[in-house]
Design a protein that fits this description.
Elements lengths: L10 H5 L16 E4 L6 H13 L3 E7 L4 E6 L5 H9 L6 E3 L11 H28 L4 H22 L1 H12 L6 H20 L7 H20 L7 H7 L4 E4 L4 E3 L8 E4 L8 E6 L2 E4 L1 H4 L5 E3 L4 E2 L4 E2 L4 E7 L5 H16 L5 H28 L2 H15 L2 H21 L1 E3 L4 H7 L2 E4 L1 H5 E8 L6 H11 L5 H12 L8 E6 L3 E6 L2 E6 L1 H4 L7 E7 L5 E9 L3 H10 L3 E5 L4 H11 L3 E3 L4 H13 L4 E4 L6 H6 L2 E5 L4 H6 L2 E3 L6 H35 L5 H20 L5
Parallel strand pairs: 15-22, 15-24, 22-23, 24-25, 25-26
Antiparallel strand pairs: 1-3, 1-4, 2-3, 5-6, 5-7, 7-13, 8-11, 8-13, 9-10, 9-12, 14-26, 16-21, 17-18, 18-19, 19-20, 20-21
């Protein structure tokens, strides 16, 4: 019998937690894809691939560490469930993914594209600046015109190529009759380039090629910094759908697609496999691991007449289900739809930069129009009026404003990465700074989801020896934990005969002629004790109770106390039993808690908090938390979380300790202050620059220096966050 696989403990995971993916670790054209939530490093890649390629029927295996997946090119006769068990044998948890529901993973094309455009703009800017120095130094007539034409030859193609991201975004906004920050940027770049060409063709003294290129370069730098602060996240709804079992085993033994099943069909669910449909047990008894769906830390016994949900893991005995809902109608698919809806709602959040742009963009256009109208009315010279209007657009163009957010988020992201936090969303820091309520999941978040025996030393050595021998014959999580604790105490297992596991109940054997059992209270004839426990019965003796507690995640209690000191409300929501939730609440100091909550209940509770004006930070790790994570104002999940939870979260906690979460809150609030300070710097710059431009005193040199100066000031202010 196979229970949940223990996380891998390879030395390289500790030594190199940020190991890079294997070069070219893209997916190959295989027919089986498995999720590997516990794979962390290069040693994991090697161990998984080597073991799979040793398996008969496997032609090739390739691990993608970023996606935590292995793609296997195997013969048709080889089942995914068998390969899952193979990986469990070397300590790696694995889940089958349905390749038909996974979107193709895009390469980092956008990052390379921005970097290439930035390089072109920088190269062209430096060359045009060198030509402009000669003009500023007093070159005139034919020499000046020659330098202007050479500048045009370099600048025009460079601007057309490098500034395209701004042009595309501006056009997208104008098509739906709205303004964004890229509209004044694009207008300034286009008018500066066109007017420079016009001035050059007439032999004019001034050209704005250097200013147009400088503007393009600095804004591309800001855009690239913004891109690099976040990872490209796949849709959590797709990841949830991919966890659905794509095929099911009919009672006759025939394997069919889950989509072809209809209500009333009978399917067989073998031990160690995931339940493919929602249905009712008709035959068999077993125990289910529901931790991914409900957060229950302990397996649940099931038998005839009980309802099972798609996605639950069958642990001990074979079951026959009568299908009630499959595919699109299953509870797992409904959860995926709930997550998708919550993600859409949260994506409506408007960033500080967007809010500033909504005010700034119309103002810039009005100023340029005012400058043109005023100078044309005063002089009647349309050429002079257009030049001054262009100067106003250039000198007031939001270069500093465009860098205000990326410069700070890059500095903050670097600081938090060194503290063990990975920022995924571009607005995560702003939303985290606004959080006033923190909601925790229990199993796998505040706790490690690993039960540990309490008071082992109080039991007799004989009882412990028998208990270890029985526990070694079971894959139940409590048996595994008990066996490990007794082994660590140095107690050898007793010699047993006729060891047999009874699905849904426990393990029994014969010891020195007496029947011994380890399992559920009612099965061994013991009175149930409060809390989590396993029971040992030896003929002729009173039952022995082994109590368990869920180990707290490092830093959990300290984090809760730190959040309270900062004035945040803390709530614990869990799908586990009330006694287990109450125990963790007491140990961490959380007064407000709720137990036995379904995934939809958690999401509804967070929605209710949001309606009351609360800004909720959700910290969770399981499949049952994904809807709540998506609907929260901001969310965090540990690196050990299920992949669907990591995908939907804004921030990923890289280490085992929860303490960096408080550091993230402090950094987010400091970062928001720096962003607002940068907006102030940009506003002060414009208060000085705008009158100069309106007065017609802004030369190309003044415009370029002013833009560069404001951008440098914004970047230096952001660097204060690194030294904080």
């Amino acid at each position: 019998m196979s229970g949940p696989a223990a996380p891998s403990a390879c030395p390289a995971c500790v030594a190199a937690p940020a190991a890079r993916d294997r070069a070219g670790a893209g997916e190959i054209g295989g027919n089986i894809i498995l999720s590997l939530p516990t794979a962390h490093c290069a040693a994991c890649i090697s161990a998984v691939e080597r073991r799979l390629e040793q398996e008969p029927g496997v032609r090739a295996a390739r691990v993608n560490l970023t996606l935590r997946r292995v793609t296997i090119d195997a013969e048709e006769t080889l089942s995914p469930a068998h390969l899952v068990n193979v990986l469990a044998g070397i300590g790696y948890e694995a889940h089958e993914l349905d390749s038909t529901t996974l979107a193709a993973t895009e390469t980092d094309r956008r990052g390379r594209d921005l970097l290439m455009r930035l390089a072109v703009a920088g190269f062209a800017m430096m060359n045009v600046m060198m030509l402009s120095v000669a003009v500023w130094s007093g070159a005139s007539d034919t020499t000046r015109d020659l330098f202007h034409w050479v500048s045009a030859f370099v600048a025009v193609p460079a601007v057309i190529f490098a500034a395209r991201p701004f042009f595309d975004n501006a056009w997208s906004a104008l098509r739906v009759r709205r303004l964004n920050m890229d509209v004044p940027i694009s207008l300034a770049i286009i008018l500066a380039t066109v007017m420079s060409l016009y001035e050059t063709s007439l032999g004019g003294k001034h050209a704005y090629f250097d200013a147009a290129l400088s503007l393009t370069f600095f804004l591309l730098a800001g855009r690239y910094l913004d891109y690099r602060t976040r990872s490209v996240a796949r849709s959590a709804a797709e990841e949830l759908a991919a966890l659905e079992v794509p095929r099911a085993l009919l009672e006759s033994g025939e394997s069919v697609a889950v989509a072809d099943l209809r209500p009333g069909d009978r399917v067989r669910v073998l031990p160690g496999t995931r339940v493919p449909v929602d249905g009712e047990v008709e035959e068999g008894e077993s125990e289910l691991d529901r931790s991914l769906l409900t957060g229950e830390s302990l397996p649940v016994a099931v038998g005839p007449g009980q309802r099972l949900n798609a996605g639950e893991m069958n642990l001990t005995g074979p079951l026959v289900l009568r299908v009630q809902a499959a595919g699109e109608d299953s509870s797992l698919r409904r959860m995926a739809e709930l997550v998708a809806l919550a993600e859409t709602s949260r994506n409506r959040y408007t960033s500080l930069a967007d809010r500033a742009a909504a005010v700034y963009a119309p103002l810039v256009h009005l100023l340029a129009l005012f400058a043109f109208a005023g100078w044309y009315a005063a002089t009647g010279d349309i050429r002079l009026s257009v030049n001054i209007a262009v100067a106003v657009l250039i000198i007031t163009c939001p270069c500093a404003l465009g860098l205000a957010v990326p410069a700070v988020t890059t500095a903050a992201s670097g600081r938090l990465f060194r503290a063990g936090m990975l920022i995924k969303s571009p607005t995560a820091l702003e939303r985290l700074a606004e959080a006033d309520t923190v909601v925790f999941d229990k199993t796998g978040t505040l706790t490690l989801g690993q039960p540990e025996p309490v008071g082992i030393e109080e039991h007799r050595r004989t009882d412990l020896a028998v208990a270890r021998a029985l526990a070694e014959g079971s894959g139940h999580p409590l048996s595994q934990a008990l066996c490990g604790a007794i082994r660590a105490a140095g107690i050898a297992p007793a010699a047993l005969d006729e060891i047999r596991e009874v699905p849904g109940h426990g393990v029994e054997a014969v010891w020195q002629g007496r029947r011994v059992r380890l399992g559920r209270a009612d099965w061994v004839g013991a009175a149930p004790a409060g809390g989590t426990a396993a029971y040992l019965a030896i003929d002729g003796q009173a039952p022995v109770i082994f109590a368990f507690s869920d180990r707290l995640r490092p830093g959990a209690a300290a984090l809760v106390q730190g959040l309270k000191r900062r004035g945040l409300d803390v709530i614990l929501l869990s799908g586990d039993a009330p006694a287990a939730v109450a125990d963790v609440a007491v140990r961490t100091g959380i007064e407000a808690w709720e137990a036995e909550m379904l995934p939809a209940d958690k999401a509804a509770r967070i929605a209710m908090l949001a309606k009351s004006g609360r800004r909720v930070l959700m910290v969770g790790d399981g499949l049952n938390d994904t809807a709540a994570l998506a609907s929260a104002h901001v969310s965090i999940s540990p690196a050990s979380a299920l992949e669907a939870a990591r995908v939907v979260s804004d921030i990923v906690l890289l280490g085992a300790s929860l303490e960096p979460v408080e550091e993230a809150l402090a950094t987010a609030r400091a970062a928001t202050r720096r962003i607002k300070e940068n907006f102030t710097i940009a506003a002060l710059y414009n208060m000085i620059a705008v009158p100069v431009a309106l007065a017609g005193l802004a030369t190309p040199l003044a415009a370029a220096l002013a833009m560069s100066g404001s951008s440098i000031m914004v970047s230096l202010n952001a660097l204060r966050l690194v030294r904080r």
